[in-house]
Amino acid sequence: MTGTPPAPPISGATRLYVVLGDPVAQVQSPGLMNPLFARLGIDAVLVPVHATPERFSRVFGGLREAGNVDGIFVTVPHKAAARGLADRCSPMVEITGSANALRREADGGWYAENFDGVGFVAGLVRAGCDPRGQRVSLVGAGGAGSAIAAALLAAGAERLALCDPDTAKLRALRARLEAHWRGRTTGSAEPDLVGAGIVVNATPLGLRPDDPLPLRPESLPPGAVVADIIMKPRETPLLRAAAALGHRAHHGIHMLDGQVDSYREFFNLG
Question: Which of 1, 11, 212, 217 is most deeply packed, by most CB within 10 A?
């Protein structure tokens, strides 16, 4: 980042932040947060930690007991599990059932928040695509998808068509959303793209080269904005296919860019 002062050398006084995921090679948060620490003169570093689902609770438990760990970021597929390991949760986490950031509180407990949704909506708005009054199709009712669903409804989306083959997960998410935004969601096992002005892939499909597409690009409504939350690769197969058909592509990195200010406030970084 141009103009960012060099980070102080890591020492015994350096505070630690980690991002947990499986896989973890694709995470982009260290490239945003570490320059932020340097710019603010904070002696801290964010590093990726690979934790498989069967080891997640043990890895998380060890990190929360380490006295110099101040924050834990969570990415796919651990966001729902992280909510269950927090001591306290924000209202957004209660609605979505998932968390993507946790901070150590003064009493040693861990407080969970989810910024995926607000970050995604902020990125959309900055790119000139306001969801207010729009019909949105969202594929994926997992950790990120649930947060994005709540944020889109809070931002005024007229109708949200949710899709996930896990019908129990989909039903539970709709019940939580309907408690706050009654009558504005539908649910199905297959993508419902009819009339959608914005179509969002909130699944991990596209992280790996052999992944199937999360939806059929030829079924996209004319003029739809197609968003993918995957950040690496930047040009996912879905976005390439949508762009080839004349649709506007919205890249995953916008969601993370939209979260930086929220992280700064959440972690009291000054």
Answer: 217
Strand partners, 18: 47, 72
pLDDT value of residue 104: 97
Q: Indicate which residue of 36, 38, 63, 79 is catalytic.
A: 79
pTM, full prediction:
0.87
Q: Is the dihedral of CA 115, 21, 253, 153 positive or negative?
A: negative
- Strand, coil or helix: what is 47? strand
Where do the domains of the chain lie, and which CATH numbers do they carry?
Answer: 15-114 (3.40.50.10860), 117-255 (3.40.50.720)
pLDDT for 2: 54
User: Per-residue b/e over 96-109, b at no fewer than 16 CB within 10 Å?
Assistant: bbbbbbbbbeeeee
Tell me the mean pLDDT per 10 residues along the chain, length 270.
70 97 94 93 97 98 97 95 96 93 96 96 96 98 95 98 96 95 97 98 94 97 97 96 98 92 93
In this prediction, residue 59 carries a pLDDT of 98
Task: Check if 169 is active-site.
Answer: no
Query: What's the number of CA atoms in the CB half-sphere (13 Å) around residue 241?
Result: 14
CA–CA distance, 162 with 171 (Å, rounded to integer): 10
How many H-runs (helices) and E-runs (strands) does the chain carry?
Answer: 10, 12
188: amino acid identity, one letter: S
